[in-house]
Each structure stands twice: as C-alpha cells, then as structure tokens.
Amino acid sequence: MEQRNPKLHPQVQKFLSEMPSISAGQIWDTPVSEFRNLFEQMATSQVAEKVPVNSVTTLSIPGPAGLIETRIYDPLSLEGSEKQNFPLLVYFHGGGHVVGSLDSHDSVARFLCAEAGCVVASVDYRLAPENKFPAAIEDGYAATKWLANNCQSMGYGSGPLIIAGDSAGGNIAAVIALLARDDKDGPKIAFQILFYPVTDYSCSSNSYEFFGTGYGGLTKERMRWFQSYYLPDNSYADDWRASPLKAPDLSRLPKTLIITAECDVLHDEGAEYAKALQKMGCEVEYLDWPGMIHGFIGSAAIFDEGKAALRLTTHRIKEITM
What we know:
Layout: H1 10-18, H2 21-24, H3 32-45, E1 55-63, E2 66-74, E3 88-92, H4 106-116, E4 119-123, H5 135-150, E5 161-166, H6 168-182, E6 189-195, H7 206-210, H8 220-230, E7 255-263, H9 267-279, E8 284-293, H10 304-321
Parallel strand pairs: 3-4, 3-5, 5-6, 6-7, 7-8
Antiparallel strand pairs: 1-2, 2-4
Helix pairs in contact: 4-10, 5-6
C-alpha cells in the first residue's frame, strides 16, 4: 500500500490547532447560508490590510441567466494608453461551487493585480444549490468571452488573456480553456493558472483517504457535501464540464501553471491533470507545495508559503508579457 508521511509546515500546524471547532466539524446538517457566512468570516478575517491598487470598479456583464457581477482591479503601474499592452486576468474564486464571493477572494485578486501589473477581472458566477451544474460554467465562459471581446473598448486592449482560479474556480478555469479551444469564435487564452483545482468530481482519488480528515477545512465529507449540492446527481461527475480530467481531448490547451498543496484531498487530481496535459503535448509547469493544505494561497496573509506561491505566479504572468 502507498505510504505518505508529509510534514506539515509549522504555520499550518499552528493554524490547525487554533481552528474553531465549527469550521472543522461535520457539515451535513449545516445550512448552506450558515456555511457561507462562516466561509466569508474566515476568509476576510485573515487579511490584515488590503494590497493597494489603482482602482476597483464593478461591471455587470450579460450572462445566460441575467447579469454577472464582475469586479475589475486596475494596477497602480498602469495609466492611459499603457494599459493596452498589459494582460487581462479573469479570476474565478473557490468555494466548492457553493460558497465564496468576490469579497472572500479580494486579497488574491489584489495581490495578482498589484504584483503582476495586470488588470484582474474577478467573476461572481452563480452558486449551487440555487443554480446547479452547469450554471457556474455557463456564467464563467460567458463572462470570459464578453471580457475578451470588450476589453479593448474598456482600455485594456491587446495584452494576452489569462484565466485563473482556485479549487472550484480552478475547475471553472480549466473547463473554460477547453470550451474556448473548441469554439471557433472563442477567446484566445494565452495562459491558465490552476490553484489546487477540482478536476474530478467523483471525489474518489487516493488523496481523499490520506488527507480526508485532520488537514484543515476541506475534508472528504465537505467535498462530498459540495458535490451533492453542485451536481444534479452523481452521474454528472462523468461529464467533462464537471470533471475536466475526463475530457476526451486535452490537447492544444494554453500554457498552464498548476499548483497543488501536498496535504490536500484535491492533491492527486491536480497532479493527474498536469500529467494528462503533459502527455498530450501541452506546456505545463506543475508545482506541489510541501507541507501545505488546501486554501493556502488564499490564506497568504497567514502562510508565508501562500505568499511565495502567489509571488511565483506573478513572475510567470510577467514572463508571458515580455
């Protein structure tokens, strides 16, 4: 039998020892509204101060079921016509397709905007269970396509288009890359960034058994709770739009950066997705962060390694603009 003996980072050990019991306990009897509030409180409480950017504005983008609220972050380094040559990064927040918001991932969007010198568009897609699969995918693709077609008129023009997301947001970004590839009128994506993405909604990889409990808020049971709310039924886990690892063709995808956390239930499917893309000839950089747990990048204010991962990401963004 496979053996894994990870050593948790001291900051992670401290975080887990201080985690409130309600955030680490059973979830099946927790109302969605209560968990959403808890998630927001935990996410926003970890941020000591906001990273400064030039401006933050809100757009309402037309979507398949109404307007999609999108927050635009403009970096300090850009003024006037200079914006035309800088990238536009479309970001999708995590939260199991059930929780999370523009506010919960404001710190990540700000960091990427300020450190990479790119415009960030953070998309507030529809959540389950009110809007089950594929609502989030439909919103994500509609927003990406609209932004790609309208960014020039917004003054952000000709730079490369990047998509990114963490966890469920990484799932959305990965699926959008596939949809764009196969759409003759689709957006031309130069780079996709996937932070510990959900790539297989069957929730059955080996890392579910190794890291299913005792390694933070995302337990095996929590993922299955998300699955039960997001998918109309478990058979939809075989649909590649829910599980991009199961896509029949993973070739011809944009340059990709995948970052996983060593001690995460989603670890193995992120690693497998990187291998599958590499096998099909895609340019992939895969980094597994030792001693880290799910969400460590979103918790960069308390985990030094989260900030290091974000900083590496901003370097990669700058490289594609050179």
